[in-house]
Each structure stands twice: as structure tokens, then as C-alpha cells.
């Protein structure tokens, strides 16, 4: 009987699962389009210098640290009729709106107005709407799926298939449509609306159909979170700092955004960049085996091994030149390494929240997400964008206005190759080292969870024991 109840509790409802992942497709689509094509849009359509765009991204993401702290405190102390984290899912609307407003920037505006506009929209996109939505993601996940590790593992692993499929559709079609449409202000507007309108609608399904379980918060020994708790977590939870470094390296790699430049200037056909996304189908079956692998290896260990394997792919990219065969092989290998980091991070955050309880602190699901995942990601995103702009400017890249075709110097071409291969490889090596260090936490989890259960049982017993007068 107990076994049957357990299997029923671990069953993943397909409708709820799909509603949950719909929002991740929206988020992934926005991130893919902005990080891959915004810099190219700014340099080759608006005529902005690469370093200026890089500075916009870097400064904006540094500012995000303030909103990270605010989001952590606000979400951890939120109590509404919709739950703790669910209301912040509405940030998906703001994300698609800001993305649209970036890509409809008129090329005829003055340089100053372009800079101010792009900076403002980018800051609202990632510093406000994405910050609150991302910070609320793990608290929402835990409460939507009853803090059930098996269920959440399935959502993270199988959900990666859904998100990957959605991203592949955008990766395949966007560059092709971009080559056909993005030759004027009106063309860019049409292009971005083709994607943002359906992504906005899709992004609302999670908020509408997935509710929180209010009983999850009942087991916390301390309900309200104050800044003293957050500061104590920052000082005491050293494992969380390792996770911050992982997200920093990962988002730096993701945000370098050299793919669009590589296919435009080295391959000579930006429309063919979408062909790499088709190869993602090769990797989808691996997502089905993640739950089985996690019975033997922790999420951190899987992330570390994937990062090591990715280095081979970056070496292939370095020697690929314009060869689509080699570029496809390199893409498959590097994409394989990205899957565990992208989709198993929730499991790592759950352990970090549990470790907070072990330290005598509130779980602080949102604070873990905002400060360590959010801040690490945003600084990495800012640094990656800045690195792209700085490297291209240093190599003599020539910006153009109105999508005018220009010939780039050999130094710029060489830098584009490095940004697409050896530079991210070095960052992946650092990520692997940090992930192996973080894997030590998973070995301690049985002991940690046992102590938390004992403390809760003891406190619950004391509260229900009759007082002696």
C-alpha cells in the first residue's frame, strides 16, 4: 500500500507538466534572441560601436545586483492568495515587451537616444522582469510539485526536452527569417513580433494553470525572512558561492554571443546558423536518462562531467572554419554539456535551500535563486556581453548602420573565431573544477536531511506537548 501511494505521489501529470514548461520556452526564447542577436542588431543595424553595446550590457547587469537583493527579500516574504512565487510569473509579459522594444529601435535616432533606449529596455528586461521571475522560479517549482525530489527531478530532466524543442524551433527559424526580413526598421519590427506575440501568450499558461501547495511553508521553523537571515546565508553557505561561480561561467559563455558574427563573417551565411539547432534532436534522448543517472551521480557531478566533455567540441569549433560538418559536430558536443547546467540547476538549488535549514536558517528559496543563481547569471551575462564588445573593438571590428555590408580586418575575424571556440573552452574548464567542488554537498545530503527531520519532529513535539503548571 505504501509503495502504491509513493508511486502515485511521484507520478507527473502531463497537463500540469506542459503548462509549467510553457513559461520556460518563453524565457528561453527571449534569452536566445537577445543574447545571440541584440549585439549584432546594435552594431550592424543601429551603427553602435561593439564596446558601447558591451558596456550597456555590463553596467546594466551590475545594477541588477540591487534588484537581486530586493527580489530575494520581497519574494521570500510574499504571501498572497495566489501563493508566494506565482504572482511573479507575470514578469514574462514584461520580458517579451522589453525585447520587442529593443528590436524596434529606429536606426534614424541619434546615437545618444539609441544608447539610452537600449540600456533602459535591457535593464528593465533583465534587471526587473527577469530578475523577479527567475528568483521566484525555484520557490514556485517546490510549491507546485509538493517539494517532491522525484517529481522535481522529472520536471527538470524531461522538461529540458520541451524547452530544448522550443528553443530549437526559434534557433532554426529566427536566422532564416532574419536574413529575409531584417533589412530595415520595418523588417526588424515584423521579425520580432512574429516571435514575441506567441511567446507572450505561451508564457501565461503556467500562471493560469499551475497552483502552489500552501502546506510546503508550514514545515519551516521560521516563517518571516529578514535581511539578517540573508546576510547569515551569504556568510555561512559556502556551497552557494560555488554555485554562483558555476552560473557566472555558464552565463558568460552563453552571453558571448559570437555565433551570429561567426556565421555572418566566417561562414558567410547567417541564415544557415539555424541548421545547428536541428542537431539538438540528437541530444534529446539523453534527457530521458538523466533521472536514472541521478540515482548514481549528483547533479553537480553530471554538470562537471558535461563541462569537461564540452572542451572537445570547442576544439572542433576552432578548426572548423566554414565547414558546416565540423561546426555541426562541435555544436552537438558543446550543446551536450549545456543540458545538465541548464536543466539540473534546480536540483542543486534545492540542496542549497536544504543546507540553509541545516544551518538553522529559513530555506530562503528565493534568496538562493536571486542572489547566487540570479546574481551569478547576470554578472556572467554582463561580462559575456562586455567581453564580446571589448574583444571585437580591440580587434578593429568595423560597425555599420542600416545593415550595410562591410569587410572586416583579419584581426577581427581571428577574434570572432576565438570567441566561438577557445575562450569559452577555458571558461568551461573553470566551471568543471568548481562543479566538482560543489559535488561534496550531495554526499552530505542524507545526513543533512536526517538532522532537519529530527529537528522538525522535536520542535513539533514540543509545541504539542501539554504545559505543566
Any key phrases for this structure?
469 residues, mainly alpha, Growth Hormone, Chain: A, 77% helix, 0% strand, globular
Question: In summary, what is this structure?
Answer:
This protein has helices at 2-9, 14-44, 50-76, 91-103, 111-144, 149-181, 185-202, 205-209, 227-236, 238-255, 259-267, 275-278, 280-293, 299-320, 324-343, 345-358, 365-394, 410-419, 422-438, 440-464.
CATH domain fold name: Growth Hormone, Chain: A
Structural class: mainly alpha
Strand content: under 5%
**Number of self-contained structural domains:** 1
**What is the CATH class?**
Mainly Alpha
> CATH homologous superfamily - what is it?
MFS general substrate transporter like domains
Radius of gyration: 23 Å
Number of strands: 0
Main beta sheet strand tally, sense and closure: none
Number of helices: 20
CATH architecture term? Up-down Bundle
Residue runs with pLDDT of under 50 for 5 or more positions:
none
Mean pLDDT across residues: 87
The general outline is globular
Question: Could you characterize what this model shows?
Answer:
With 469 residues, the chain is mainly alpha-helical. The chain has a single domain (17-209, 224-452), classed as MFS general substrate transporter like domains (Growth Hormone, Chain: A, Up-down Bundle), CATH 1.20.1250.20. Helices cover 77% and strands 0% of the residues. It is built from 20 helices and no strands. The chain has helices at 2-9, 14-44, 50-76, 91-103, 111-144, 149-181, 185-202, 205-209, 227-236, 238-255, 259-267, 275-278, 280-293, 299-320, 324-343, 345-358, 365-394, 410-419, 422-438, 440-464. Helix 3 runs parallel beside helix 5.
Amino acid at each position: 500500500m505504501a509503495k502504491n501511494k509513493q508511486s502515485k505521489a511521484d507520478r507527473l501529470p502531463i497537463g500540469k507538466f506542459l503548462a509549467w514548461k510553457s513559461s520556460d520556452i518563453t524565457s528561453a526564447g527571449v534569452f536566445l534572441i537577445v543574447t545571440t542577436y541584440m549585439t549584432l542588431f546594435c552594431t550592424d543595424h543601429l551603427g553602435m560601436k561593439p564596446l558601447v553595446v558591451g558596456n550597456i550590457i555590463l553596467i546594466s547587469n551590475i545594477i541588477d545586483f540591487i534588484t537581486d537583493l530586493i527580489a530575494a527579500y520581497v519574494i521570500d516574504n510574499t504571501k498572497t492568495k495566489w501563493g508566494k512565487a506565482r504572482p511573479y510569473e507575470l514578469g514574462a509579459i514584461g520580458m517579451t515587451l522589453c525585447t520587442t522594444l529593443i528590436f524596434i529601435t529606429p536606426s534614424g535616432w541619434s546615437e545618444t537616444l539609441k544608447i539610452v533606449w537600449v540600456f533602459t529596455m535591457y535593464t528593465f528586461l533583465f534587471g526587473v522582469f527577469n530578475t523577479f521571475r527567475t528568483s521566484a522560479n525555484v520557490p514556485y517549482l517546490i510549491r507546485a510539485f509538493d517539494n517532491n525530489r522525484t517529481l522535481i527531478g522529472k520536471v527538470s530532466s524531461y522538461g529540458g526536452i520541451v524547452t530544448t524543442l522550443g528553443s530549437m524551433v526559434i534557433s532554426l527559424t529566427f536566422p532564416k527569417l532574419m536574413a529575409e526580413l531584417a533589412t530595415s526598421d520595418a523588417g526588424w519590427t515584423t521579425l520580432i513580433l512574429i516571435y514575441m506575440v506567441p511567446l507572450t501568450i505561451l508564457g501565461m499558461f503556467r500562471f493560469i494553470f499551475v497552483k502552489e501547495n500552501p502546506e510546503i511553508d508550514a514545515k519551516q521553523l521560521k516563517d518571516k525572512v529578514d535581511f539578517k537571515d540573508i546576510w547569515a546565508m551569504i556568510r555561512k553557505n559556502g556551497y552557494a558561492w560555488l554555485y554562483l561561480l558555476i552560473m557566472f561561467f555558464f552565463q558568460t559563455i552563453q552571453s558571448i554571443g559570437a555565433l551570429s558574427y561567426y556565421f555572418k563573417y566566417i561562414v558567410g551565411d547567417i541564415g544557415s546558423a539555424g541548421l545547428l539547432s536541428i542537431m539538438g534532436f540528437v541530444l534529446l534522448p539523453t534527457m530521458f536518462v538523466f533521472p536514472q543517472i541521478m540515482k548514481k551521480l549528483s547533479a553537480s557531478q553530471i554538470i562537471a562531467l558535461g563541462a569537461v566533455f564540452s572542451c572537445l567540441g570547442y576544439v572542433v569549433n576552432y578548426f572548423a572554419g566554414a565547414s558546416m560538418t565540423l561546426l555541426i559536430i562541435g555544436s552537438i558536443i558543446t550543446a551536450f554539456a549545456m543540458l545538465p547546467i541548464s536543466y539540473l540547476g534546480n536540483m542543486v538549488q534545492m540542496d542549497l535551500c536544504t543546507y540553509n535549514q541545516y544551518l538553522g536558517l529559513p530555506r530562503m528559496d528565493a534568496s538562493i535563486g536571486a542572489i547566487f543563481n540570479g546574481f551569478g547569471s547576470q554578472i556572467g551575462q554582463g561580462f559575456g556581453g562586455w567581453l564580446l564588445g571589448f574583444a571585437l573593438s580591440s580587434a578593429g571590428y568595423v560597425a555599420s548602420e542600416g545593415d550595410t555590408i562591410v569587410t572586416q580586418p583579419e584581426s577581427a575575424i581571428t577574434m570572432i573565431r576565438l570567441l566561438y571556440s577557445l575562450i569559452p573552452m577555458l571558461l568551461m574548464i573553470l566551471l568543471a573544477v568548481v562543479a566538482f567542488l560543489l559535488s561534496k554537498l550531495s554526499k552530505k545530503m542524507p545526513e543533512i536531511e536526517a538532522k532537519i527531520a529530527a529537528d522538525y519532529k522535536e520542535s513539533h513535539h514540543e509545541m504539542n506537548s501539554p504545559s505543566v503548571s
